[in-house]
Amino acid sequence: MKVKKELTELREKTIDELKALARELRESIESERVQSYFKDQTSTNNVQSSRKKLARVLTIITEKEKEEKKEAKQK
After folding, report:
1. Which of 2, 23, 27, 38 is found 20 to 30 A from 16 (Cα to Cα)?
2. Quick check: 47 and 32 in contact, CB under 8 A?
3. What pTM did the predictor assign?
4. Strand ranges for 1-75 from DSSP E
5. How far is residue 23 from each of residues 3, 34, 37, 73, measured CA to CA in Å?
6. For 13-50, how does the pLDDT look when each residue is reduced to its tens digit (9 = 90+)?
7. Are 70 and 28 in contact (CB under 8 A)?
8. How far apart are CA 32 and CA 39, in angstroms?
9. How far is CA 1 from CA 4, 7, 50, in A?
10. Using one digit for the tens of pLDDT, what is the confidence trace for 46-67?
11. Residue 20, Cα to own-chain centre: how many angstroms?
12. Can you give the C-alpha Rg of the chain in angstroms?
């Protein structure tokens, strides 16, 4: 249920908002990796969940871009 709610919220955003979110997620993944390397080994779950969320965001971006191309071809 949590993932479905998250997906509907992500699908409501624009492509630019999603790209900004993807940028933020990449930065957080990088910082979490560094933290887990130097400090805390328990934060690897955070990296994994952030990577999954990033994959979802990138998938939705691709879907929206394909929809826009389809609509542009129809006009």
Report:
1. 2
2. yes
3. 0.85
4. none
5. 20, 17, 21, 29
6. 999 999 999 999 999 999 888 887 777 666 677 888 99
7. no
8. 10
9. 5, 10, 18
10. 888 999 999 999 999 999 999 9
11. 9
12. 15
